[in-house]
Amino acid sequence: MPAPILTPRAAVDLTATWASLAASSTLVAGYATASYDNTANDDSRLLLSGFFRSGASALQAGIIEVWAFTQRNGTDWPGMFTTTYSGSAGAFTVSSRQSLQTGAVPVAAVRTDNVQRTWDIRPRDILLPFGGLERVAFFVTHNAHTTTTAWSATEADHRLIMTPYRWV
Questions:
Q1: Residues near 161 by Cβ (< 8 Å), separated by ≥ 6?
Q2: Which residue of 20, 35, 98, 158 has the lowest C-beta tally within 10 Å?
Q3: Positive or negative, the Cα torsion across 14, 160, 46, 95?
Q4: Is 1 inside a domain boundary?
Q5: Number of domains, the chain
Q6: Nearest alpha-carbon partner for 34 in 77, 64, 1
Q7: pLDDT tens for residues 133-161?
Q8: Which range of residues forms the domain containing residue 102?
Q9: Which CATH number fits the domain that encloses residue 149?
Q10: What is the pTM of this model?
């Protein structure tokens, strides 16, 4: 019998509206994706990758952060936002940086400069920090523009992609 091979399944675009995401000088305001449900497939690896594009004006050196968070007990999401997260995508603000750091795991931190360009998120295994999970969502925040300016208004300029893998 041949040894099992770790094989990718179809990649999934995570549901979110990234276009014109405003900068947050304190990195507390941002956007959370809809949750990704791994209960039916129980995949062995989940690789997150993607890209974001800075806007054309008021650029400054900054950072784009991507954070992963999962349900605490299989039903409740962490209470790190000022409004309740229930698994649906939307604009969210964390209560504080401390609540973000205790309720989520950093996935990517991309340093930006003051040039309009696409910033890539290299593939990251999401299961490793959690040791397995049923549902996961992602919070994205950035300060790569002045606080009154957003990044690219073209939706196709931004994506977060989950690629699940299983042993076959």
A1: 11, 12, 13, 14, 48, 49, 50
A2: 98
A3: negative
A4: no
A5: 1
A6: 77
A7: 889 999 999 988 776 677 888 999 999 99
A8: 6-167
A9: 2.60.120
A10: 0.92
